[in-house]
Write a structure and sequence with these properties.
This protein has 396 residues and is an alpha/beta fold. The protein folds into two domains: 2-58 and 357-394, Urease, subunit C, domain 1, CATH 2.30.40.10; 60-349, TIM Barrel (Alpha-Beta Barrel), CATH 3.20.20. The protein is 34% helix and 20% strand. The chain contains 14 helices and 17 strands. Helix 4 runs parallel beside helix 5 (198-210) and helix 8 packs across helix 12 (323-330). The longest helix is centred in the N-terminal third of the chain and has 17 residues, at 82-98. The radius of gyration is 21 Å and the shape is globular. The two termini are 18 Å apart. The structure holds zinc ion (ZN). Zinc ion (ZN) binds next to loops.
Length: 396
């Protein structure tokens, strides 16, 4: 048993307790109770940690990252060996955990390393966060797919989609990743351009459902977002060029579709950071996407369930702790919206809200202990947490 004394908790991320200072009791992998300070009745051998008012958050979620994405230099990235990708992935997963992200979703990868790493973490072979992974990114043949060798599996008819989905399912993926519009990062890709058809998006949804999975679909452009909403796709990745028509359709379809913005690289490049080896055309595309950031905020406030994603390289991510928190603040989200997106909203998108996403007796004890009050100043999230617990076990 562990007792976290004088834990500052945030009311909208804490269930079954009113107040802002608590004693948090953890038994094994679970939160046992959240109690007024000084009232916990626990056995003598209980390990007691006085937090002196540090804030305790539920474990954070990142629903859009790529485990092998070690560097923003795409030439270096594409030239790495399979073995190098594996070690890079272990490092990147560890970096997420260190920043308090106890659940991550790997949105497409090379050589199925996400599957191998997920299973290795479960087996205890290497430490890491809880991983949900797609295998390859399924995509229509489109401009710039060769930018990322081994990442894509090109599928060009509903039949090919069904076959590829079955293949991914057989490998043991958690969900299916698909590309419906052009990409910012793909050389010559046009983010606004639809690269699929209505029949293919519906075939994807049906194929994923038939194997008990869901699809996460990359869409910057509006036409792609509309098709996904119409087909009932679970997550629209990036969702950059949202407008009222998209919002209205998502809501009319009962909110089956959620969005996972990934503002980190957009704002990073817009601010002119890390230009490095990137081609100038990329900056034009970034500005095009950045111009729509306010539309994402509007979609969220209209009721579109909005999760957390970053889509950054490990190299940038590790040097800029909590960058996405700062970026979401910059585009107009409130602290409460930001904190919910990184916790309970993302848990809901994955269907994990009964065991994760808030602090509540009976939920898994994924705890992120931070100095400062992120509900008042979100930049408190731009430092490494003071401690991170995954299912009751201290990781950092
Ligand atoms: Zn991505």
């Amino acid at each position: 048993m562990k007792l976290f004394r004088n834990a500052r908790v945030i009311p909208y991320l804490t269930e079954g307790f009113s107040g802002s200072l608590a004693d948090l009791l953890v038994e094994g992998r679970f939160v046992k109770a959240i109690l007024p300070v000084g009232t916990a009745d626990c056995p003598e051998e209980t390990e007691i940690l006085d937090l002196h008012g540090k804030t305790v958050l539920p474990g954070l979620f990142d629903l859009h990252m790529h485990l092998y994405f070690s560097t923003e230099d795409f030439h270096v990235l594409g030239a790495k060996s399979q073995n190098e990708y594996v070690f890079d992935a272990i490092r990147y997963a560890g970096e997420f955990l260190r920043q308090g992200f106890t659940t991550i979703r790997d949105c497409g990868n090379v050589f199925d390393i996400g599957i191998a790493l997920r299973d290795a973490v479960v087996a205890g072979t290497v430490p890491g966060p809880r991983i949900f992974t797609a295998g390859k990114c399924l995509t229509p043949t489109a401009k710039g797919n060769s930018t990322f060798p081994n990442l894509y599996d090109e599928v060009n008819t509903p039949e090919e989609i069904l076959k590829a989905v079955r293949k991914e399912h057989a490998k043991g993926v958690d969900f299916i990743k698909y590309m419906a519009t052009g990409s910012v990062a793909n050389l010559n890709g046009e983010p606004g351009e639809l690269i699929t058809t209505r029949a293919e998006v519906f075939a994807l949804q049906a194929a994923a459902e038939s194997v008990g999975k869901y699809a996460g679909v990359h869409c910057h452009g509006k036409e792609g977002i509309l098709l996904c909403a119409e087909a009932g796709i679970r997550t629209v990745e990036h969702a950059s060029m949202m407008d009222d028509e998209c919002i209205e359709l998502i809501l009319r379809k009962g909110g089956k579709t959620s969005i996972v913005p990934t503002l980190d690289p957009v704002v990073q490049l817009h601010r002119g950071h890390e230009c490095g080896a990137l081609p100038p055309a990329l900056f034009r595309k970034i500005d095009q996407v950045y111009a729509h950031a306010a539309d994402l905020v509007r979609a969220t406030r209209a009721g579109v369930l909005t999760g957390w994603g970053t889509d950054s390289s490990c190299s940038f991510y590790a040097r800029n702790v909590g960058y996405e928190f700062d970026v979401r603040r910059e585009v107009g989200y409130t602290n409460e919206e930001i904190l919910k997106q990184a916790t309970i909203n993302s848990a809901r998108i994955l269907g994990l809200e009964d065991c994760l996403g808030t602090l509540r007796a009976g939920k898994l004890a994924d705890l992120v202990i931070v100095e400062g009050n992120p509900d008042e100043d979100i930049l408190a999230m731009c430092r490494y947490p003071w401690a991170v617990y995954l299912e009751g076990r201290r990781c950092y």
